[in-house]
Aminotransferase class V-fold PLP-dependent enzyme
Amino acid sequence: MSTLDIDFVRAQFPAFSEPSLQGQAFFENAGGSYTCKPVIDRLTRFYTQRKVQPYAPYDASRLAGEEMDEARVRMAAILGVDTDELSFGPSTTQNTYVLAQAFRQWMKPGEAIVVTNQDHEANSGPWRRLAEAGIEVREWQIDPDTGSLNPQDLENMLDEKVRLVCFPHCSNVVGEINPVTEITAIAHAAGAFVCVDGVSYAPHGLPNVGDLGPDVYLFSAYKTYGPHQGCMVMRRTLGELLPNQAHSFNGDVLYKRFTPAGPDHAQIAASAGMADYVEQLCAHHGGPSTGAAEQGAFVHDLMRAHEVALLQPVLDAVKDRNTVRLIGTSEASRRAPTVALALNRQAEPVAAELAQHGVMAGGGDFYAVRPLQAMGVDLAQGVLRVSFTHYTSQHEIDQLLNALDHVL
């Protein structure tokens, strides 16, 4: 099956059969997705049958530990990395903060990192604070008209002092998909490590991080149809080089080194439901029967093709409106279906107007203050953001376009 079976997809999400949500089209997926049934089922089972301290020899505890291990094994395989290179933490923001503290200890005053002004604050603020430790922070700046990052600009910023380059796979307001492999190669050639914020990309198809090449890749499970956990891929070379941030007795376990807090057992176990969902989609659409990474790639491409087909009419409908400025490219194939619009009035009341038409969207800055400022957007007005994912239907797109016609 070459196209996504939207009816099958929506049947895997209880939200679409929930009476209180009927008639409402969900277009704030960039803030968090609906949760798929396999995750909900696993979370419910854990809380009802396994809610004990894991890894002890009695059955409930043994099964709890096995389910936590299953989540790491299966998700790491989809992401194309070793099992112990994937760790779970309370959020991507928290994971990034802990990682920044490790770099603070490892780097020397006078050494440098590169950050962008395209990022959500979670992959910008913690790194910029390293300046307090005498570390030079260099800003790779976006084009103020397009919001794009130019890899050539990065190449001109790199020298022997740079230890780390941080950038997003795509921005939560600009939406343009950055060429991770190309940028990573440029940074590695200069001797720098690479940290990629994948929070705004991963919901549109889990990437093969092993193929992409960065040293760190972060995303949020609650945006990839799962529980509220932050997922962090830490490749072994860098993970063993940085100082341990966890309990001293966990320092020799790669997936524990950067999670100082106790893990959320139930949510980690439930994360295996995301792998269940990938397998279900792959099998239903006639994809590969074996190979987690291959199945993940097949599902990634299914999701992206569906999203691009739905996104282009939305971009076409807004790009030429006199009272609207589309943030980012108008080519659907080059961006995620996260569409930010700068209006000639405050965005939040417009989002409230959309709600009257059954469209759930948001208005504000979405913690993307730096890129919006760089592009000349009035932060007091903010942007209207409509974002969707592969479970969005053509009917909902039509509902959105009709609603936008009314409110704009």
